[in-house]
TrEMBL record:
The gene is LYM2. One of its GO terms (molecular function) is chitin binding. This is LysM domain-containing protein. The keyword Signal applies. Residues 108-155, 172-216 form the LysM domain. Keywords: Signal. GO terms for cellular component: plasma membrane. Pfam families: LysM (PF01476). It comes from the Eukaryota. The keyword Phosphoprotein does not apply. CDD domains: LysM. Residues 1-23 form the signal peptide. It comes from Helianthus annuus.
Length: 359
């Protein structure tokens, strides 16, 4: 039995070399009720020169488009595009709040290959986004030295679904670079130093360490999503876009559009084939994303309300377009603002595909 000798050595080595090895809690603070889910983002510094396709596979990102969208890359970018070691990409992933912390929702799943070790997987394959005791803990592995080739490991990336200062945000796991300061990061993402210190449980700005991941809240666009929508709450930060409703809908967030989420038919192949459901606002001739000016300070929009089994929900909303609120102030906020009318559109086709269509 040589385990007792090797294992302590591993612990000592990893506490020297792994930046997160002291943090036993894998996730960011997430006080939402257990089982709350949302979409999240984390920086991944490439350990190797590799292709976008390989990264999509490693993190089990649903499709290349989602990776491109998270990085605001053109949709025409090839899956074979090479990124170099030490370049950073933003990885989109689903977040799960559990027991006070947020961790990736059973994704990515990594399959052990010959000569793998938990430390190698954590520190090298996943660039220390997690520590090996964290992988060990969520996978209920009692002995870190006994992992088997072919064994599937849940890699618990840190995330959160909590509101910040009463507003929905996307929690972004930002990789701290040498020379970064808390004030500088706060300024770059338009938040405050005290918010960052609080979210990350840091006593002072001097606690910031290069090459660690910190929780940065990104302001997101307001939506009119139903709370029973399969993609609720759809978090889309400034200057990015996302595909949702099985690729039928593309939503974009821009500060220039008053922080109101703009969704349109994606006009691309639906996930798993088939035809996208109707996206017209009931009782109107408006398609999803159509707007019309009602008055100098108000416009109506056929807005995205979420999706269900074979249905895309739409809602006619009114937005004030004049600064200072001289128009109607009934712009959508959070989950279904007052005075807004739900309408839903049932799809006539592809009923047989229903259970294949989960996001
Ligand atoms: C990777 O490095 C090569 C050679 O230095 C360079 O030509 C290429 O543009 C880099 N790739 C990216 C995505 O920056
Ligand atoms: C939740 O936290 C409590 C107290 O920290 C701990 O005893 C329990 O094992 C945790 N449950 C899970 C599922 O992690
Ligand atoms: C990077 O390359 C090294 C050595 O070739 C290998 O051990 C490691 O698994 C690679 N990492 C990834 C993420 O492919
Ligand atoms: C973890 O493993 C131990 C020992 O194999 C077992 O008793 C326990 O029920 C497992 N816990 C979970 C959550 O699977
Ligand atoms: C940053 O946030 C503040 C408060 O939310 C806002 O007033 C300001 O316009 C924002 N700055 C930018 C550049 O968006
Ligand atoms: C969802 O919205 C409905 C109607 O707006 C509300 O009654 C319900 O409590 C909400 N459910 C949750 C879990 O927030
Ligand atoms: C939103 O993105 C634009 C363009 O990148 C940037 O100029 C602006 O400061 C950002 N605003 C916030 C609040 O992040
Ligand atoms: C309404 O939206 C559809 C789908 O995006 C688009 O093809 C059409 O041009 C829009 N019509 C108007 C009047 O904006
Ligand atoms: C969607 O379909 C599943 C199984 O077909 C069903 O259990 C579920 O209640 C449906 N959800 C909605 C919102 O209709
Ligand atoms: C505000 O909305 C109401 C009802 O939707 C409408 O009758 C009124 O004309 C709007 N006012 C302005 C200034 O757009």
């Amino acid at each position: 039995m040589k385990f007792p000798l090797i294992f302590p050595t591993l612990i000592i080595l990893s506490s020297i070399f792994s930046p997160q090895s002291t943090a036993q809690d894998p996730g960011f603070r997430c006080t939402n009720p257990t089982s709350t889910t949302c979409n999240s983002l984390i920086d991944y510094k490439l350990p190797n020169t590799t292709t976008l396709s390989a990264i999509t596979t490693l993190f089990q990102i649903r499709n290349l488009r989602s990776l491109l969208a998270a990085n605001n890359l053109p949709i025409t970018t090839s899956k074979d595009t090479v990124y170099n070691a030490t370049q950073t990409l933003k990885i989109p992933f689903p977040c799960l709040c559990r027991n006070g912390t947020g961790i990736s929702n059973h994704r990515p799943i990594y399959t052990v290959v010959p000569d793998d070790g938990l430390y190698h997987i954590a520190a090298e394959v996943f660039s220390s986004l997690v520590s090996y005791p964290q992988i060990q803990k969520v996978n209920n592995i009692s002995d870190a030295d006994t992992i088997l080739v072919g064994q599937e490991l849940w890699i618990p990336l840190p995330c959160s679904c909590d509101d910040v200062d009463g507003e929905a945000v996307m929690h972004y796991g930002y990789l701290v670079a040498a020379g970064n300061s808390v004030g500088g990061i706060a300024m770059e993402f338009n938040t405050t130093e005290s918010t960052l210190l609080d979210l990350n449980g840091m006593g002072s700005a001097a606690d910031l360490k290069a090459d660690t991941i910190i929780d940065v809240p990104l302001k997101v666009c307001k939506t009119s999503l139903r709370n029973d929508s399969m993609d609720y709450p759809l978090l889309v930060p400034n200057n990015t876009y996302i595909f949702t409703a099985n690729n039928c809908v593309r939503c974009e967030c821009s500060a220039a559009n008053n922080w109101i989420l703009n969704c349109e038919p994606a006009g691309i192949q639906k996930r798993n084939g088939g035809t996208c459901p109707s996206m017209q606002c009931a009782g109107t001739s408006f398609d999803l994303g159509n707007t019309t000016s009602d008055s100098p300070c108000s416009l109506s929009r056929c807005a995205y309300g979420g999706y269900g089994n074979n249905t895309i929900y739409t809602e006619l909303t009114q937005e004030s377009t004049c600064p200072g609120g001289s128009g109607n102030n009934s712009s959508p906020s959070g989950n279904g603002a007052k005075g807004l009318r739900w309408s839903f559109v049932l799809a006539a086709s592809f009923i047989g595909l229903l259970h294949l269509l989960r996001l």
